[in-house]
Design a protein that fits this description.
Layout: E1 3-7, E2 10-17, H1 25-28, E3 32-35, E4 44-50, H2 54-93, H3 96-100, H4 108-123
Antiparallel strand pairs: 1-2, 2-4, 3-4
């Protein structure tokens, strides 16, 4: 956290996020977010601005949702890398005939997750 300030009748929660974090529109559009383009440090500096009422509570909930989203994404990326390593070991130690019968059974939602992770990797 960088800080909390009162600007006129508003409260601004200033946060610096890691450069590899994403900010999905469906999350950040829930509150008033301003990126500090003049920030020279490492990361992405965002100010979450709200009136000190129930909108501030919604803003804080949005911040937690954004943090949770990115932490889960990081854990999924680590898990995916580990599973890729496991799969490489299986391919290196197995015969072609055995590998041709290899099947993966995933719930359909996992295919969407895999595709989104692949898309993110291509963007980098």
């Amino acid at each position: 956290m960088s800080g909390i300030r009162k600007v006129k009748q508003y409260v601004s929660i200033d946060l610096v996020f890691p450069t590899n974090w994403t900010f999905p529109t469906e999350i950040v559009e829930k509150t008033n977010v301003v990126q500090n383009e003049n920030y020279k440090g490492s990361g992405t500096f965002l100010s979450f601005v709200a009136e000190p009422d129930e909108k501030l509570e919604q803003t804080i909930e949005t911040i937690f949702e954004l943090i949770g989203y990115n932490l889960e994404r990081q854990e999924k990326e680590i898990l995916l890398k580990n599973k890729i390593q496991e799969l490489k070991q299986i391919f290196e130690s197995s015969k072609l005939n055995d590998l041709q019968n290899l099947k993966f059974e995933l719930p359909y939602d996992d295919y969407d997750l895999l595709n989104s992770l692949e898309d993110e990797q291509e963007e980098v």
